Inverse folding.
């Protein structure tokens, strides 16, 4: 379980192109075609499994939405921010 972040910490640490929606951080990644998005979602899943912190992933035609929250901590944690940064590094 990660350390729950305050509103100020979330705002200052939110990775580039991520947004806060209530108790989640969210980003939509855009791709040229569906299979590129599927491949990216697989990569996100592999990162999540290695880190043992799993996002919600929604695959659309040319977009993939990734959402992180820390259910155990009850909100957005430092682990959510860390994983968002790792996912950004793969894009």
């Amino acid at each position: 379980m990660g350390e729950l972040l305050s509103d100020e910490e979330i705002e200052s640490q939110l990775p580039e192109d991520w947004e806060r929606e209530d108790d989640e951080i969210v980003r939509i990644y855009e791709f040229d075609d569906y299979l590129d998005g599927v491949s990216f979602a697989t990569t996100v899943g592999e990162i999540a499994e290695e880190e043992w912190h799993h996002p919600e992933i929604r695959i659309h035609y040319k977009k993939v939405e990734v959402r992180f929250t820390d259910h155990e901590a009850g909100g957005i944690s430092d682990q959510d921010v860390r994983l968002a940064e790792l996912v950004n590094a793969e894009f």
Remarks:
- DSSP finds three helices and four strands in the chain.
- Residues 26 and 67 are 5 Å apart (CA to CA).
- The mean pLDDT is 95.
